[in-house]
Structure to design on (276 residues):
């Protein structure tokens, strides 16, 4: 069975890889909208993380990074060799989790992954790296599960922080762009509801029509050599710098600054152990 500690947003049933009644979710907060959503689609629910561990084989630790040390302390005594422990916590290394769990289980199977909120509409992007004791089959099982809500691929662990900044946080940038488009429309007299819908449709269609270029690795930026913007006359746009476009949103150094940044919100007593 599969265990989920927490999942954000309005839940949309995934493709039938695993029956809902074989999933157990746990949370100490019974008033969360997520709890109601899980129950509606037939997922078992408990307020006990320990009960979840005992009834499951694959454990998703879908909590904020500062909570990981306390979760491991709580459920560690119940971890067995059969368990696959999947951590979705940003910045928390495989080795730190293995070190903590090894006091309870000599060979804990640990997988570190990073996904994003579009999983709730089956359009998520997930990458993962396997730990010392997790084998290829364990990774393939995770791929099968996460591919039901988007796409999933394996990477080296040292790339996961970069993925956290790119696709993990990427949806927020898309929503920021949508807000900016809608605000511009409202400023020009459009009703906000219509402006948001038009902006969303523009983004959606642009990405959908560009998937062929994306798979070929072509550049979609206005100043890129592969995909010039037909709306801009001549070639003056070729001289634009990232700082002059999108309010600096496309600046490589500014964008990269957040990638690989150490977690600052971990408890000080655990920071050295759990931050890579």
């Amino acid at each position: 069975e599969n265990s989920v500690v927490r999942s954000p947003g309005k839940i949309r049933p995934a493709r039938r890889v695993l029956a809902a009644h074989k999933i157990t979710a746990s949370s100490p907060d019974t008033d969360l909208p997520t709890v109601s959503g899980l129950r509606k689609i037939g997922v078992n629910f408990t307020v006990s993380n320990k009960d979840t561990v005992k009834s499951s084989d694959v454990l998703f630790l879908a909590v904020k990074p500062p909570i990981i040390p306390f979760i491991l302390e709580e459920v560690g005594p119940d971890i067995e060799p059969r368990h696959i422990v999947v951590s979705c916590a940003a910045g928390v290394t495989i080795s730190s989790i293995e070190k903590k769990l090894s006091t309870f289980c000599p060979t804990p199977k640990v997988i570190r992954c990073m996904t994003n909120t579009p999983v709730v509409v089956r359009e998520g992007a997930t990458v993962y790296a396997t730990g010392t004791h997790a084998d290829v089959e364990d990774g393939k099982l995770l791929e099968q599960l996460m591919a039901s809500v988007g796409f999933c691929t394996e990477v080296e662990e040292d790339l996961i922080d970069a993925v956290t900044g790119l696709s993990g946080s990427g949806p927020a940038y898309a929503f920021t762009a949508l807000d900016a488009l809608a605000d511009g429309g409202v400023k020009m007299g459009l009703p906000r509801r219509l402006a948001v819908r038009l902006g969303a449709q523009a983004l959606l269609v642009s990405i959908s029509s560009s998937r062929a270029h994306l798979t070929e690795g072509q550049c979609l930026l206005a100043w890129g050599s592969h995909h010039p913007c037909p709306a801009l006359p001549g070639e003056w746009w070729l001289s634009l710098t990232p700082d002059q476009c999108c309010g600096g949103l496309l600046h490589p150094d500014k964008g990269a600054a957040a990638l690989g940044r150490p977690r600052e919100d971990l408890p000080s007593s655990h920071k050295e152990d759990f931050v890579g």
About this structure: The first strand starts at residue 2 and ends at 4. Residues 1-11, 222-233, 255-262 have pLDDT under 50 and may be disordered.
